[in-house]
Amino acid sequence: MQPVVRPPVRSRRRGPPPSLVGWAAAAGLMVAVAFMVGRPGQEQELLASTPPPTAPPPLEIVFGTALDPDTNVAIQRTNRFRAGDPFAYSVTLPTAPGTDQILVEVVRLGEQRRVVQEPSVQRILPEPHTFAFQVRTDDLLAAWGAGEFEMRIYLNAEGSPLAIGRFTLLPPPG
Are 150 and 104 a contacting pair, CB within 8 Å? Predict the structure, then answer.
């Protein structure tokens, strides 16, 4: 009997080799998982992780030991005040505030962060672009003590801070 010679077996599969198909499937699965994970909270109607800004960033409160008589801007700039120093601050707006009052809040910073001055009404002129105040550092030390503070100024009680600034009240010597 003669052996039967058969032609070599050829694969009838067409396309890439099996190892390439596996890698492509894995990559597709990773893209699908990344797409689902990359959309946090959409299905639960949560806020996006970085909401678009709705209000401009707060302005800077400028601190100093005097007010310029012509511009009403705080001069002799500093944010560190000792007993006996004048304490001055000012805010310059791009346009007139259009109101005759602001709210000023002061927060003590540090481990025991707390409000030391609830938002309190301060009278201003509605037309000038700059408003300013000057007080005695001794009065602030008597009311709040020494420490690091943040001042926040609001145009209304419901809004975001119009201006923010930080300052330090140093303890009296001795």
Answer: no
C-alpha radius of gyration, the chain, whole number: 33
Per-residue pLDDT of the chain (174 residues), as tens digits, is 455 444 554 545 555 555 544 544 444 444 443 434 444 444 444 444 555 567 789 999 999 999 999 999 999 999 999 999 999 999 999 999 999 999 999 999 988 889 999 999 999 999 999 999 999 999 999 999 999 999 999 998 888 999 999 999 999 887
- Please identify which residue in the block is written with the tokens 């560190």: 80
Neighbours of 153 (CB within 10 A): 22
State the Cα–Cα distance between residues 80 and 64, nearest whole angstrom. Answer: 9
**β strands within 21-100, DSSP E:** 59-60, 62-67, 74-77, 80-81, 86-92
For residue 23, give the 3-state DSSP assignment.
helix
Residues 141 and 169: beta-carbon distance below 8 Å: yes
Placement of tokens 């109607």 in the chain: 45
